[in-house]
Amino acid sequence: MSDRVRITDVAPRDGLQNEPGRVPTEGKAELVRALAATGAAEIEVSSFVSPKWIPQLGDAAELFGMLAQDKPESVQFSALVPNAKGMERLAEVNQNAGGKLIDKASVFAAASETFSQKNTNATIDETLERFEPVIEMARSHDLAVRGYISCVVACPYEGPIEPEPVATLAQRLVDLGCDEIDLGDTIGEGTPETIAEMLLAVIEQLGGRRENDRGEPLITLHLHDTFGRAADCVVEALNLGVRSFDGSAGGLGGCPFASTPGKRAPGNIATPLLVRIIENEGFKTGVNEAKMAHASAIAERLVAGARAMESAE
Ligand code: HMG
Ligand code: MG
Predict the structure, then answer these.
(1) Is 178 a catalytic site residue?
(2) Ligand 1 centroid to 114 CA: how many Å?
(3) Which contacts (CB < 8 Å, 24+ apart) does range 200-209 have?
C-alpha cells in the first residue's frame, strides 16, 4: 500500500467559519497563499453556503478572485457547496477565472437527523436530493466531488452514533456520484476504538475499495480534537489503510451549528501535529514543516485580530 498520505488543510473554511469576528478577505488570501506553499495537496478555501447562515465566508467569490493568479499547479482548491445555488456561484468563479481555479466541490451531509436540520435546515434525505443537481453540474464541469458526513461517531444533540448509518450514508453518497467520502468527527468525541469501528464499517460497505476512479483516496478522515485523542485516532486510521486526512493550520475550526449552550464546537486537529504523526509513522505527506508553521502563525494572527476587533466593538 502507498506510503503517500494526502493532507487537506481546511483552516480557511472550517477554521474561519466559527470565528465571531471578521477576518479581512486579503488576510484570508494571505493564509491560502502560505498554505499553498507548504506542499499540502489540497486547500479547502471557503464555502458557497448561505451568507445569512455563515456570514464569515460570504466573501468566497471575492477571495477566489484574489487567488486566481497565485495557484501553484501542485495544489487543489476546494469549497463547500450545499445546493444548486452554491454550485452556480462556484461555477461562476471558475468561469471568471477562465479555468479550473476550484478543482473540487464538497457537499456535506450528516449521520444525525438533528444535526442535519440544525446545519442545513433539511432532513438527511432532503439534503441528498439537493446534491443531485450539484453533482450533475460538477461532473459536467469535470470537477471532483467530495461528500462529507458529519457526526460519524457522535452528534452534539443526539449523542453516540452507530457505525451502520454512517456506512449506509457513505454508500448513498458514492451512489450519487461522490468521488470520495470525508468522515467528520464533528465534535471530537472519537476514540481509536470508535473511529476504528466506524472506519471498518464504511470500508466494508464500500467493498474494501481504497481508491476512486481518479486514483485518489476514497476515504478521508476529518478529526476535531476536543480531548487530545485525535492523534491516536490518526494512527489507528493509518493502520486501517486510510491515506487522506484533513487538518487545520493553527488548530482552528468548528461548525457553529455543532456548538451547544456553554460548549463551543472544537477546532480541527492542527495540521503541523497531523503531519508530524503521519511522518513519524513512516509515511510521506510532502508538507514542509517550517512552511506549515509559518501558515499556522498567519492563521493564529488573523483569528487573534478578528477576536480583538470583536471584543472592541
Ligand atoms: P435555507 O435558509 O433553508 O435556504 O438554508 P433556502 O433554500 O430556503 O433559501 C433561503 C435564502 O438563502 C434565499 O435567499 C436563497 O437564495 C439563499 P432570499 O430569497 O431569502 O434572498 N441561499 C443562498 N445564498 C447563497 N448561497 C447559497 C444559498 N442557498 C440558499 N448556497 C442552506 C439552506 C443549506 C443554504 C443553509 O442551511 C446553509 O447555507 N447552511 C450551511 C451551514 C454551514 O455552512 N455549516 C458549516 C459547514 S458543515 C461543517 O462544518 C462540518 C464539516 O466540517 C465536517 C465535520 O466537521 O463534521 C464539513
Ligand atoms: Mg469540521
Answers:
(1) no
(2) 16
(3) 200/163, 200/240, 201/163, 201/164, 201/166, 201/167, 202/163, 202/166, 202/167, 202/170, 203/240, 203/241, 204/167, 205/167, 205/168, 205/170, 205/171, 206/167, 206/170, 206/171, 206/174, 206/181
Q: Are strands 159-160 and 244-247 parallel, antiparallel or unpaired?
A: unpaired
Atom of ligand 1 nearest to the CA of 10: 53
pLDDT tens sequence across 149-185: 999 999 999 999 999 999 999 999 999 999 999 999 9
pLDDT class of 1 with cuts at 50, 70, 90: low
**How many other CB atoms are found less than 10 A from the CB of residue 61?**
16
Task: Work out the angle at residue 238's Cα, subtended by the Cα atoms of residues 236 and 240, and round it to the nearest 5 degrees.
Answer: 75
Query: Cell numbers at residue 29, please?
Result: 488570501
